[in-house]
Design goal:
Protein name: Diaminobutyrate--2-oxoglutarate transaminase
Number of strands: 19
GO molecular function: diaminobutyrate-2-oxoglutarate transaminase activity; pyridoxal phosphate binding
Mean pLDDT: 90
EC number: 2.6.1.76
Strand order of the largest sheet: 4-12-11-10-7-5-6
Number of helices: 14
Largest sheet: 7 strands, mixed
Low-confidence stretches: 1-12, 385-398
Cofactor: pyridoxal 5'-phosphate
CATH superfamily of the largest domain: Type I PLP-dependent aspartate aminotransferase-like (Major domain)
Number of domains: 2
InterPro entries: Aminotrans_3, Aminotrans_3_PPA_site, Dat, PyrdxlP-dep_Trfase, PyrdxlP-dep_Trfase_major, PyrdxlP-dep_Trfase_small
Distance between the termini: 43 Å
CATH class of the largest domain: Alpha Beta
């Protein structure tokens, strides 16, 4: 399947021949584990900011942003300048864990952004290049520091694709993981929602830890996402997060905050734990901290630093280009108030999306924090079952559960979005949540265009659904 001369000649002109040829060869040669490529059959050849240009000449507004990795969008000038500076300097590009000026600058900027009271007593471990590598390192760290083995994690979690990370996400049995309920207003595991549901989730956690017959021994750590991303964009209530901090601190259980997707301004604060004011014992960081290049670190309290030399290593933990790009990104987000901008614009976008929710019964819920937004699609004709809900007096009354999730409609909406030049991701328990992760640099005009295209896509997909019954 060699590239033909005509295809090669037209590569930079953007033609259907190039587009179809590359997709055909990808299908023939790449693994069946392809994910994004199946739902988004595009061939990016140029990109800037929010915009991607495909090999077929079409332009798209990218609200996937490398699964949230592109805080400044594609090819931001400050990132490109930082990369060019390292390349032009003649500095080595990969140096294992040796100290370099580029690395020193990155750590200095990273520590400048950390929650108050954390950086002055923290240590940092550079891991392999992906967030899942940092999760593995964090799990390994707390097990070594506490001498215990188990981990507490939450329903709906996603922490990566390696064995330990999958176990914490509910996908593999190798690591002993105690599974706890995560607060969820729309689909509350207790059928309550709101502060009452969060309170019940917290009490459940305390019971599991304090009941000698719960079957869950004292764990090495608790890992949580301040906003569950792949789980369907579910923000943890601030009071619940503070409760989890107290629960773990009182029982000498290290608290691990997975900020791989929520970090660097995404949720309207520099780190999502900042909303609640908590300071975790361990933070897992990746995605945006590399400025679009692979980089992952674990930052943790110095008291946990019991590792011996060589206890955790990795060949590609000295990526100088990623550190330079990451420093530029962290600095730009901090100096230009992009976290605050994400909070304001995100609130405005969700307010407009709730108008869409009022118009279409198939839009079951709109939720998120900052520029991490989810729209859950449901089948309103699918029926519901009675469930208990807490009253203001802390009692119980009967109400209907939300309609069932509609993953087929979500796929249709994603397809209609792509037809309109908008790239969105799907997530959630049933893959029925349309996720928006635009770059923090998105303009007001671009945000309006994104919402207009999404509204048109929901309208078209819902109309087709009604026609076909």
């Amino acid at each position: 399947m060699a590239v033909t001369e005509s295809e090669a000649d037209s590569t930079h002109r953007g033609t259907p021949a190039v587009h179809e040829g590359i997709l055909r060869r990808q299908s023939a040669r790449e693994s069946a584990a392809r994910t994004y490529a199946r739902a988004l059959p595009i061939v990016p050849v140029r990109a800037r900011g929010l915009t991607i240009e495909g090999a077929d000449g079409r332009r798209y507004l990218d609200c996937l942003s490398g699964a949230g990795a592109l805080a400044l969008g594609h090819n931001h000038p400050v990132v490109l300048e930082a990369i060019r500076k390292v390349l032009d300097s003649g500095a080595p590009l990969s140096v294992l864990d040796l100290a370099t000026p580029v690395k020193d600058a990155f750590i200095t900027e990273l520590f400048r952004t950390l929650p108050a009271g954390f950086a002055d007593r923290a240590r940092v471990q550079f891991c392999g290049p992906a967030g899942t590598d940092a999760v593995e390192a964090a799990l390994k760290l707390v097990r070594a520091a506490t001498g215990r083995n188990g981990i507490l994690a939450f329903t709906g979690a996603y922490h990566g694709m390696t064995a330990g990370a999958l176990a914490a996400s509910g996908g593999a049995p190798d690591l002993q993981v105690g599974r706890l309920p995560y607060p969820h207003d729309y689909r509350c595991p207790f059928g309550v929602g709101g502060p009452r549901g969060a309170e019940l989730a917290a009490r459940w956690t305390e019971s599991v830890l304090d009941d000698p017959k719960s079957g869950v021994p004292r764990p090495a750590g608790m890992i949580l996402e301040p906003v569950q991303g792949e789980g369907g964009v579910i923000p943890a209530p601030d009071d619940w997060l503070r409760r989890m901090r107290r629960v773990t601190a009182d029982r000498s259980i290290p608290l691990i905050a997975d900020e791989v997707q929520t970090g660097v301004g995404r949720t309207g604060a520099f780190w999502a734990v900042d909303h609640s004011g908590i300071t975790p014992d361990v933070m897992v960081l990746s995605k945006a901290i590399g400025g679009s290049l692979p980089l992952a670190v674990v930052v943790y309290r110095e008291e946990l630093d019991v590792w011996q030399p060589g206890a955790h290593a990795g060949t590609f933990r000295g990526n100088q280009l990623a550190m330079a790009a990451g420093t530029a990104t962290l600095t730009y987000v901090r100096e230009n108030g992009l976290a605050e901008r994400a909070a304001t614009l995100g609130d405005r976008m969700m307010k407009q999306l709730r108008q869409l929710q009022d118009e279409f019964a198939c839009v079951g819920d709109v939720r998120g924090r900052g520029l991490m937004i989810g729209v859950e699609l449901v089948n309103p004709a699918g029926g519901s079952v009675p469930q208990a809900r807490g009253s203001e007096s802390d009692g119980w009354d009967s109400a209907a559960a939300p309609p069932p999730a509609d993953p087929e409609l979500a796929v249709a909406v994603q397809r209609e979005c792509l037809d309109r030049g908008l790239i969105v991701e799907l997530g959630g328990r049933h893959n029925s949540v349309v996720r928006l992760l635009p770059p923090l640099t998105i303009s007001d005009e671009q945000a309006s265009a994104v919402l207009d295209r999404l509204a048109d896509a929901v309208t078209a997909a819902n109309r087709d659904r009604q026609r076909t019954g």
